[in-house]
């Protein structure tokens, strides 16, 4: 099966955008299947950087079909801004089509208002969300009151839903959070203009993708966030509100699970996390600061400082299991250059002095776990120009060989810089 899903194996920002852009050359359709504009996927092509929040990372290639699937939550304003910005920069190729699922749910102003109010009023646990309304939008989907793209395009349904929903959300906003109420009429008018502009893009994207599959075309499914931000399998409650594991590539686009063939897990050579939540290998010392500086570890969406730490194989191995990963794309290996020693966490020591190789579900227990490290020699040589494994210094090769052994999976590529071509390709999952 020549279809490929790309997912993050850590807590997001592993470099999924770069890898999807790279693989998009071999694909016909590139489809996002979950998340929303909490994602920030960075592409660097010929030295020019593009950050995408909603549009699939295949958009810079000509002659592709880019799909925002039913599992995505769409902020129409952000999507239009993203389309306009690409157009203005001359980056929307003429023969590439963009489609949005008519079943995708819409992020409304009350969603981000509630998201921000909850995080700032100290009523519940602070998650450190991106404040983009992702959680509240998915809540409305599950509660069966959400507004889908097809509802947004139907004046009658849309008006009715906006009035009802604003009435309910204003109750929480004003009574619980002492915020100003929202004006349903103003929202209706604003969103009607978005609806008209987005109408040409909205369609049954499951039909589009399945039709392409029937024609023997290749699909690239683009995950957002990472395995440990998954609503079921992540470090709950410090997670996002969707399934980020590869299984959702099927549900979130409307294809059967057998259509998803290879699953590539993107793994950064160290670990980062944005927002709250347990992080066993976090480095709150000079080494962590240095990794942040060298790796430019600041959020592509919110600009927040990313917390940095050593590579945690416990997290990666769990992702391999949960997503059925068939190959690892190792990114940002260049960032570790210059460190005297490099460490890999191979297991956790629990408060009961037990050794575990899996992530405890209980977050209080996870917070108390101590990392058990293997230490290796670092390397000083610049690896940015390496294009074959043999070009890497000996210590770098020893590091990645050990990583493969500990993870129990083979690498398919090693990324040594942000640019599309700053990559060592070991195996192309599309078979090219
Ligand atoms: P995503 O959310 O998984 O797509 O990742 P982000 O785009 O949020 O963050 C990854 C950052 O690392 C971006 O700024 C990329 O341009 C950059 N990047 C990706 N791969 C590499 C690499 O191999 N080396 C370096 N130095 N930067 C990289
Ligand atoms: P990409 O696709 C890193 C984190 C937030 C917060 C938690 C919940 O670029 O890898 P949310 O706004 O989703 O309700 O926030 O999830 N988070 C991400 N962290 N990369 C992302 O996306 C993220 N999307 C959400 O920081 O901790
Ligand atoms: Mg990101």
Q: What would a concise description of this structure say?
A:
The chain has 432 residues and is of the alpha/beta class. It is 32% helix and 20% strand. The protein has three domains: 164 residues, Adenylosuccinate Synthetase, Chain A, domain 1 (3-Layer(aba) Sandwich), CATH 3.40.440.10; 94 residues, Adenylosuccinate Synthetase, subunit A, domain 2 (Orthogonal Bundle), CATH 1.10.300; 159 residues, Adenylosuccinate Synthetase, subunit A, domain 3 (Adenylosuccinate Synthetase, Chain A, domain 3, Alpha-Beta Complex), CATH 3.90.170.
What do you see in this structure?
There is one protein chain. With 432 residues, the protein is of the alpha/beta class. It has three domains: 4-103 and 201-264, 3-Layer(aba) Sandwich (Adenylosuccinate Synthetase, Chain A, domain 1); 105-198, Adenylosuccinate Synthetase, subunit A, domain 2 (Orthogonal Bundle); 267-425, Adenylosuccinate Synthetase, subunit A, domain 3 (Adenylosuccinate Synthetase, Chain A, domain 3, Alpha-Beta Complex), CATH 3.90.170. Helix content is 32%, strand content 20%. It is built from 13 helices and 20 strands. The protein has helices at 16-24, 76-88, 109-120, 134-142, 149-152, 155-176, 184-198, 205-214, 247-251, 286-294, 313-323, 363-368, 394-407; strands at residues 4-8, 29-32, 41-45, 48-52, 65-68, 73-74, 97-101, 105-106, 202-203, 219-222, 262-268, 271-273, 307-309, 311-312, 327-331, 341-349, 355-356, 370-377, 411-415, 423-425. The strands form five sheets. Strands 9-7-5-2-10-1-11-15-19-20 form a ten-stranded mixed beta sheet, sandwiched between helices. Strands 14, 16, 17 and 18 form a four-stranded mixed beta sheet that branches. It has a two-stranded antiparallel ribbon with strand order 3-4. A hairpin with a 5-residue loop joins strand 16 and strand 17. The longest helix is centred in the middle third of the chain and has 22 residues, at 155-176. The model has no long low-confidence stretch (mean pLDDT 97). Bound molecules: guanosine-5'-diphosphate (GDP), 6-O-phosphoryl inosine monophosphate (IMO) and magnesium ion.
């Amino acid at each position: 099966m020549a279809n490929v899903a790309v997912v993050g194996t850590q807590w997001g920002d592993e470099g999924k955008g770069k890898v999807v852009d790279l693989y998009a050359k071999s694909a016909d359709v590139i489809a996002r299947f979950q998340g929303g504009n909490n994602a920030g996927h960075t592409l660097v092509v010929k030295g020019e950087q593009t950050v995408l929040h909603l549009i699939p990372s295949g958009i810079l290639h000509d002659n592709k079909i880019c799909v925002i699937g039913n599992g995505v939550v769409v902020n129409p304003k952000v999507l239009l801004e993203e389309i306009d910005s690409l157009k203005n920069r001359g980056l929307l190729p003429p023969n590439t089509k963009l489609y949005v699922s008519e079943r995708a749910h819409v992020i409304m102003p009350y969603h981000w208002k509630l998201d921000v109010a909850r995080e700032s009023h100290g009523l519940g646990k602070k998650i450190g969300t991106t404040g983009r309304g992702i959680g509240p939008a998915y809540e409305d989907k599950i509660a069966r009151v959400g507004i889908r793209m097809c509802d947004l395009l139907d004046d009658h349904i849309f008006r009715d839903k906006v009035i009802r929903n604003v009435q309910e959300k204003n109750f929480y906003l004003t009574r619980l959070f002492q915020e100003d109420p929202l004006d349903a009429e103003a929202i209706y008018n604003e969103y009607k203009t978005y609806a008209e502009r987005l109408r040409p893009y909205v369609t049954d994207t499951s039909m589009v993708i399945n039709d392409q599959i029937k024609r023997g075309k290749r699909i690239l499914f683009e995950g957002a966030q990472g395995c440990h931000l998954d609503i079921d399998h992540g470090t709950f409650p410090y997670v996002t509100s969707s399934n980020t594991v590869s299984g959702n590539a099927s549900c979130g686009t409307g294809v059967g699970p057998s259509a998803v063939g290879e699953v590539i897990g993107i793994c950064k050579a160290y670990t980062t996390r944005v927002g709250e939540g347990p992080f066993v290998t976090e480095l709150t010392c000079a080494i962590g600061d240095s990794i942040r500086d060298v790796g430019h570890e600041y959020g592509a969406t919110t600009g927040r400082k990313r917390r940095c730490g050593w590579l945690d194989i416990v997290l990666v191995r769990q992702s391999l299991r949960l997503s059925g990963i068939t190959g690892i794309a190792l990114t940002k290996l260049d960032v570790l250059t210059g460190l005297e020693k490099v460490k890999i966490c191979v297991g956790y020591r629990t408060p009961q002095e037990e050794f575990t190789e899996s992530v405890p579900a209980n977050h209080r227990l996870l917070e108390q776990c101590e990392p058990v490290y293997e230490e290796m020699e670092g390397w000083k040589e610049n690896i940015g120009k390496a294009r074959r494994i043999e070009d890497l210094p000996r210590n770098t090769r020893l590091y990645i060989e050990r990583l493969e052994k500990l993870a129990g999976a083979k690498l398919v590529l090693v990324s040594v810089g942000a640019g599309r071509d700053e990559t060592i390709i070991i195996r192309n999952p599309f078979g090219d």
